[in-house]
Amino acid sequence: GGPGVPTGGPLGTGPLTVDFGGGTLRPSPTVDTVVHNPISVDHTLRLFAGADTTKLTLTAPITFSDFAGTIAVEGAGHTATISGSISGTGLSSVMAKAGAGELVLTGAAPNALGGGISVNEGLLVLAKGGMDNATTGLLQVGSIAQSATVRLDAPEQLGALAAVAINNGRFDLNGFSETAGLFTYDPGAIL
């Protein structure tokens, strides 16, 4: 199968490949869509969660064919959940979260993102099972041009030596504990 347009039916049992030009998974606007296929991404995976009442869930591993890749949840008010692991090539792989929508990282499988996660826009919710499973590298929240938010929905999502840099955004502990090697923030950042 390819990264086509799911309409509530299966995408087959094989892996999905998103080439360098990027691709978009668009679920049915009337039913929640769950994709169980492993996904290989060359550059950008766009997730559009359809209507505000439907959800898109990816349960299998996502692998970037390079050391860095982007996952974009397009459309404010839309939510996509990834419960499989996310990895790239090399020990210092990096994932960027783009788009105004909400991306939720859940599941017990740890991400292999030693280079970290850069949240450029929208909301990233960290709810991985176990400790230190979201990333062991840098968690960068926001940029000079964009505001972003990271919210914990489970404790201890970052590796003990991970760094958190809040540039133009918010890091919401949401009542949970988090240990990191270094926290830095710019004026106007919200902890």
Question: Topology of this protein?
Answer:
Elements: E1 16-18, E2 23-25, E3 33-35, E4 39-41, E5 44-47, E6 56-58, E7 62-64, E8 68-73, E9 79-82, E10 86-87, E11 94-98, E12 102-105, E13 116-119, E14 122-126, E15 138-141, E16 148-152, E17 163-166, E18 169-172, E19 182-185
Parallel strand pairs: 1-4, 2-5, 3-6, 4-7, 5-8, 6-9, 7-10, 8-11, 9-12, 11-13, 12-14, 13-15, 14-16, 15-17, 16-18, 17-19
What can you see in these coordinates?
With 191 residues, the chain is mainly β. 0% of the residues lie in helices and 38% in strands. It has no helices and 19 strands. It has strands at residues 16-18, 23-25, 33-35, 39-41, 44-47, 56-58, 62-64, 68-73, 79-82, 86-87, 94-98, 102-105, 116-119, 122-126, 138-141, 148-152, 163-166, 169-172, 182-185. The strands form three sheets. The chain has an eight-stranded parallel β-sheet, with no helix packed on it. A seven-stranded parallel β-sheet has the order 3-6-9-12-14-16-18, with no helix packed on it. It has a four-stranded parallel β-sheet with strand order 1-4-7-10, with no helix packed on it. The radius of gyration is 16 Å and the shape is globular. The termini are far apart.
